[in-house]
Amino acid sequence: MSRDEERVDARDVAWYVDKVASTLIFVGGISAVVFIVGIFAFVTREGLAFVVGRFDFVEFFTSIAWRPTSLLRPTFGALGLIAGTAAVTGLAMLVSIPVSMGVAIYIAEFARGRTREVLKVLVELLAAVPSVVWGFIGLMIMNPLIIDVFDVPLGLGVLNSGLILGLMAAPIMTTLAEDALKAVPDSYREAGEAMGATRWQVITRVVLPAAKRGLVAAALLGVGRGFGETMAVLMASGHAIHLPTSVFDSVRALTATIAAELGEAPVGSDHYRALFTLGIFLFVITFFINLTADVLVRRVKKE
Amino acid sequence: MFQSTEQNFRAARNEKVAKLLLGALTVVLILPVFMILTTLVVKGAPAISWEFLTTNPKDGMTAGGILPALVGTVWLVAVALVASVPVGVAAAVYLTEYAPDNWLTRAINLAIINLAGVPSIVHALFGVGAFVLFFELGTSILAASLTLAIMALPVVIVATREALQAVPHSFREACWAMGATRWQTIRHVVLPNSVSGILTGVILEVSRTAGETAPIMFTGAAFFLPFLPQSVYDQTMALSLHLFVVTTQVPGVPVAMPYGVALVLVAVVLIMNAGSIWLRMYLRGKKKW
């Protein structure tokens, strides 16, 4: 080796430290991917034996008979649970999508200075209330209120948990929708106003169409959040498994079923594996909701 | 000359109506916060005393205090922080300082969104399948905290990434120009300049994990355990689960008690959260560059 080549090699301690650090950071970097794959793998690992064995596609999606603990003939029809989740999430979105879009428009386009800062903080604090506290509110405050106001025997059900879920999803949707409105360049608004349009005309004819995709993504992520919510639905929805026919009906959601039954299901039993199968189902659906929202947001960024 | 036409007039009136309606909607969304807080304080405050915070529950949880639940929550949150902060900060450093614009980076970002979006009960199933059974940690603080750590990871990553991105690129270039390695630049320039921003994320994570219930239900939190945990391999009570238990599982609880538990939990969560928001605003106002 000639002396010139020796001098070129500048690998000192710092160089090696740098290599080790960048490797560790890379491992940290891909951790989120590892974990999301891990979640899918481990939940599937526990549920797979049911999916390939006892699982009956037709029964699962068309029967409302969820009797996993029956000694004679356990049945695993999840339709009632799916309907419960759909009813609660549906009502929640009916309430929270218009409210959050309206609030987002108010905060992004009308509110100024201090008012806006205070509103944003309040929305953020609303998002911070833990789900078990929302469940508590549903059970202790909303339940007697609904019984009083509507003169029904039970206040736990679609209406109660739908409203609670709506309140829970609204802050997240509001924040995301506000971000989407913020992403519309000010030059659009200025162009509109220069044409003599009022602020409201600019919002409805310029800003909202331009922010359309971001707003849809915000609503979708809100749906995902409501869909996967567990404790609040567990406490505020009652527990009857059936197809709800009125907003006062008591229902049982997918998430609540897992939370209510996992503790009693013996590890390795059909019941236990069936609950993990519900978990796989929830995972796959939220994954696609998030994926769709991500595609929408990315397309906005490209434009 | 400008003339106020019928059309102008109508447009101006529409705007006023719209603004009023949207403002009213905002009040409708914000109002519950105050109603809930007032109710919790009014009904919960009578239950809270020094004794409530420092004694064990007794008489089948219908009386006594919440000490083991409070201590248990501190354990769960602390262990979750130890596990998730280094990983989350590393992930954020990778994304801001190293990641090229390729499919892997896109996959990482998608995974972060999904980690935040996966239902909490699915995180719980994962915790049972992975930590409790596969890694044989049993139902323990360690298993519950690791489950919480993974669930809270996106909070740390997103906050840290924001803090790192706020450090101007010229700072890094100046450091590289001095012959420093990438890691030296990160260690001595980027991280010191973003540490308080990272702190806001950590506080936010504390507030988030302290309130979680579903992920710890089957992985390490116990309904009733009147002892303080001695190690991470013990089970423990937790404030959030305790609220669920005294509200739904125990008959004959005096009505003030669950309100008291809820008030303590909400106070812990909201104070931490408000602190994090305040710190973020303070830092934004103080920024020198």
Please render the helix and strand layout as text.
The complex is a heterodimer of chains A (303) and B (289).
Chain A: H1 3-8, H2 13-29, H3 31-52, H4 57-62, E1 66-67, E2 75-76, H5 79-110, H6 113-128, H7 131-150, H8 158-182, H9 186-194, H10 199-210, H11 212-228, H12 231-236, H13 254-261, H14 270-302
Antiparallel strand pairs in A: 1-2
Helix pairs in contact in A: 3-14, 5-8, 5-11, 6-8, 7-8, 8-11, 9-10, 11-14, 13-14
Chain B: H1 6-44, H2 50-54, E1 57-58, E2 63-64, H3 67-98, H4 103-117, H5 120-134, H6 141-165, H7 169-177, H8 182-211, H9 214-217, H10 239-248, H11 256-286
Antiparallel strand pairs in B: 1-2
Helix pairs in contact in B: 1-11, 3-6, 3-8, 3-10, 4-6, 5-6, 6-8, 7-8, 8-11, 10-11
General description of the model:
The complex is a heterodimer of chains A (303) and B (289). Chain A has helices at residues 3-8, 13-29, 31-52, 57-62, 79-110, 113-128, 131-150, 158-182, 186-194, 199-210, 212-228, 231-236, 254-261, 270-302, and strands spanning 66-67, 75-76. Chain A has 303 residues and is mostly helical. Chain A has two domains: 3-53; 79-302, MetI-like (MetI-like fold, Orthogonal Bundle). Chain A has a two-stranded antiparallel sheet. The longest helix of chain A is centred in the last third of the chain and has 33 residues, at 270-302. The radius of gyration of chain A is 25 Å and the shape is globular. Chain B is an all-alpha fold. Chain B has one domain: MetI-like (MetI-like fold). In chain B, 74% of the residues lie in helices and 1% in strands. Chain B contains eleven helices and two strands, in the order H-H-E-E-H-H-H-H-H-H-H-H-H. A two-stranded antiparallel ribbon of chain B has the order 1-2. Chain B is globular, with a radius of gyration of 24 Å. The mean pLDDT of chain B is 90. The chains are: A mainly alpha (303), B mainly alpha (289).
